[in-house]
């Protein structure tokens, strides 16, 4: 590798041909399960394409050449993850990873990180007793690592890789081998060498503050604008709508002036006055934002370059102080936003494109969708728009109109994180502009502390969906919800929305997790009425819900059912909130501190499984059930219940004696009965 010749290299080359070091000024490894799952999901998506000989470019690795090694300036999180993934795959597929002799990654002044990488390789890839044994051997081997010498973030990253791989491939080494072969030979990364005399510390600071490059969604915007560049008013309108929709940190109404809000969303900005797409295909009608304004409030006309430049300027100015903004008259911008969106703008665009394509399709949405919907992957954003919108002016206008409508519906009916209270919490609120000021009220019904109102239940079930599928590429539920919202021509109630959400959750359970083989999402979620309900057999469910097969959504949906069922009395039940927990763990551990381990058949049963976060798993993983109960109850004053299913398991643990196979079976049967009763 030289400064003059830079070519993309395979992951096999990356991990075997040179030595790399992460400098001390780089942050510690901090990728969690969501980032690791996103990486593996993206690679697997390409592996499954018809022509898996195609190359998948994973990005760049910015490096600086030193004597005998390359210093990593940008890309260390991905590199560390790939190294951990290679160790894991060598453990699972030893005969196919002879080329991976040892980790070629080291750390400057971070002995714990370097020890952990090398120790994992030594335990899983060198020792004769490290032959892979499904689900039982790995925790035992990890338990041999000296925690005082190890970096816990790297250990947790390795365990997250095991969870993701186990959930995705199970014990199917043939399918895993296909993934591994594609990863090592068809996934490419571009090493970017900086000049030898570069001040790398300064270069690192510059990279962390960069923001001038054109992002993918801005390229899409430029392509759409180029279609209407002869119509300056249309360009101005698209530009205005795009900027309003692109800021996912605030409600879309705040992207428009007060008078524009009234024209689009009504007097209090709570509705949506525009009929989409009727009336938007003619040139004179496309300037809909100015439809109720006088001439002095019409949008300024400008060129394509002006629009792109202003879009970049807007993005860079988002962090500037807004405290001196005039809040009177036509310049009201609302209060500084307190909400966090469940998705970013590039991935929201992919979601909107899906709905647009479903709208445009002349096929009815039947058991099998006939159109080729784009994957929920923003890496394909530019190509997806070129293929499905292209240079057709009517398609451009219809898409932008739909973008505005769906962004309004998203803000109104999709859950957000709300930092406006004493504690951050979930919220389902609509924006309201009244008496020249902005406020947020419940999307349905009245505001107040009615915990079990329909608004609260909708919010809670939406949050269960979100935490079950934290990565953008797996938010199929959001696609289904947006499709349903777009189809509602008349005003609907909270009960209507709740009934739809509960039906969607049931069909996710039925078609993805309680039958084998599972159905593709697009083949059932857009038309729930045509989906068949299976006859669920308890013994079959017990097998499908075992460790290594059961998904996070099953636990979260079960918690939702327990939450709304008043017959289950659980302490502090009203304080329970859904949170990001992706670690399926054994209540009675696989490796116990007191050697009290259940038989394998009972150990991996659904009745012995619970959902935890990685941090909770780290502190409780090898504790006995009684020790877990003691620890969790001791934190009750400061911590809400982690899981309602777990709370019921804790109540079954006897004060004297241990959690036995009978407890496992009784609890499992009760939980399966709840699922069966709800679905059937």
Question: How are the SSEs placed, and which strands pair?
Answer:
Layout: E1 9-10, H1 11-14, E2 20-22, H2 33-47, E3 56-66, E4 69-74, H3 76-92, E5 105-107, H4 111-126, H5 137-142, H6 152-169, H7 173-186, E6 187-193, H8 200-208, H9 216-227, H10 232-246, H11 258-265, H12 304-317, E7 339-340, H13 345-360, H14 381-388, H15 393-413, E8 416-418, E9 425-427, E10 429-434, E11 437-442, H16 454-468, H17 476-487, H18 494-513, H19 538-544, H20 552-564, E12 583-586, H21 600-603, E13 609-612, H22 614-620, H23 625-634, H24 644-652, H25 661-679
Parallel strand pairs: 2-4, 2-5, 3-6
Antiparallel strand pairs: 1-6, 3-4, 7-8, 8-9, 10-11, 12-13
Pfam family, one: GmrSD_N
Domain GmrSD restriction endonucleases N-terminal: 11-224
Biased composition (Basic and acidic residues): 314-332
């Amino acid at each position: 590798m030289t400064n003059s010749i830079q070519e993309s290299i395979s992951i096999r080359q990356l991990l075997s041909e040179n030595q790399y070091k992460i400098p001390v000024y780089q942050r510690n490894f901090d990728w969690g399960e969501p980032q690791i799952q996103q990486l593996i999901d993206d690679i697997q998506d390409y592996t499954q394409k018809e022509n898996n000989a195609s190359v998948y470019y994973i990005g760049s690795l910015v490096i600086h050449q030193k004597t005998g090694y390359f210093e990593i300036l940008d890309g260390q999180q991905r590199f560390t993850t790939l190294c951990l993934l290679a160790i894991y795959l060598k453990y699972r597929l030893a005969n196919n990873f002879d080329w991976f002799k040892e980790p070629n990654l080291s750390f400057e002044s971070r002995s714990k990180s370097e020890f952990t990488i090398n120790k994992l390789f030594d335990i899983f890839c060198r020792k004769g007793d490290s032959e892979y044994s499904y689900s039982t051997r790995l925790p035992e081997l990890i338990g041999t690592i000296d925690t005082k010498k190890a970096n816990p973030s790297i250990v947790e990253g390795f365990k997250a890789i095991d969870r993701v791989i186990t959930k995705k491939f199970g014990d199917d080494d043939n399918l895993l081998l296909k993934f591994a072969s594609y990863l090592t030979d068809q996934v490419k990364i571009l090493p970017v060498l900086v000049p030898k005399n570069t001040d790398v510390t300064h270069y690192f600071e510059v990279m962390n503050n960069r923001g001038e490059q054109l992002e993918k969604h801005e390229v899409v915007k430029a392509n759409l604008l180029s279609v209407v560049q002869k119509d300056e008013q249309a360009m101005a309108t698209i530009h205005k709508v795009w900027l309003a929709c692109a800021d996912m940190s605030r409600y879309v109404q705040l992207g428009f002036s007060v008078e524009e809000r009234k024209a689009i969303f009504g007097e209090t900005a709570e509705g949506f006055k525009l009929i989409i797409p009727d009336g938007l295909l003619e040139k004179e009608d496309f300037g809909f934002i100015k439809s109720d304004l006088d001439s002095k409030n019409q949008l300024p006309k400008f060129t394509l370059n002006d629009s792109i430049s202003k879009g970049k300027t807007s993005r860079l100015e988002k962090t500037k102080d807004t405290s001196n903004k005039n809040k009177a008259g036509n310049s009201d911008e609302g209060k500084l936003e307190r909400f966090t969106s469940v998705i970013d703008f590039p991935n929201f665009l992919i979601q909107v494109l899906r709905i647009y394509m479903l709208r445009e399709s002349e096929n009815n949405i039947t058991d099998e969708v006939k159109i080729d919907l784009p994957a929920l992957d923003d890496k394909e954003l530019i190509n997806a728009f070129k293929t499905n919108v292209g240079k057709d002016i009517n398609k451009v206008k219809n898409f932008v109109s739909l973008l505005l409508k769906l962004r309004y519906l998203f803000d109104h009916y999709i859950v957000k994180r709300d930092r406006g209270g004493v504690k951050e919490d979930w919220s389902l609120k609509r924006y309201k502009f009244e008496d020249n000021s902005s406020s947020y009220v419940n999307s349905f019904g009245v505001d107040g502390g009615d915990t079990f109102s329909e608004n609260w239940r909708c919010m809670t079930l939406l949050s269960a969906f979100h935490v079950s599928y934290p990565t953008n590429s797996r938010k199929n539920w959001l696609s289904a919800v947006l499709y349903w919202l777009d189809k509602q021509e008349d005003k609907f109630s909270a009960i209507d929305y709740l009934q739809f959400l509960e039906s969607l959750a049931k069909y996710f359970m039925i078609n993805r997790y309680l039958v084998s083989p599972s159905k593709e999402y697009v083949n059932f979620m857009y038309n729930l009425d045509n989906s068949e309900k299976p006859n669920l057999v308890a013994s079959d469910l017990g097998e499908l819900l075992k460790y290594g097969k059961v998904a996070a959504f099953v636990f979260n949906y079960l918690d939702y059912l327990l939450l709304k069922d008043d017959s289950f009395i659980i302490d502090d039940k009203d304080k329970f909130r859904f949170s990001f927990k992706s670690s399926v763990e054994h209540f009675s551990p696989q490796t116990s501190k007191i050697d009290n381990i259940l038989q394998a058949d009972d150990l991996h049963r659904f009745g012995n499984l619970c959902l935890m976060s990685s941090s909770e798993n780290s502190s409780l993983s090898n504790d006995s059930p009684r020790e877990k109960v003691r620890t969790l109850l001791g934190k009750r004053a400061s911590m809400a219940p982690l899981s309602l299913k777990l709370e019921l398991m804790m109540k079954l643990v006897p004060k004297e004696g241990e959690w036995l196979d009978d407890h496992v079976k009784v609890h499992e049967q009760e939980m399966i009965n709840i699922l069966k009763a709800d679905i059937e």
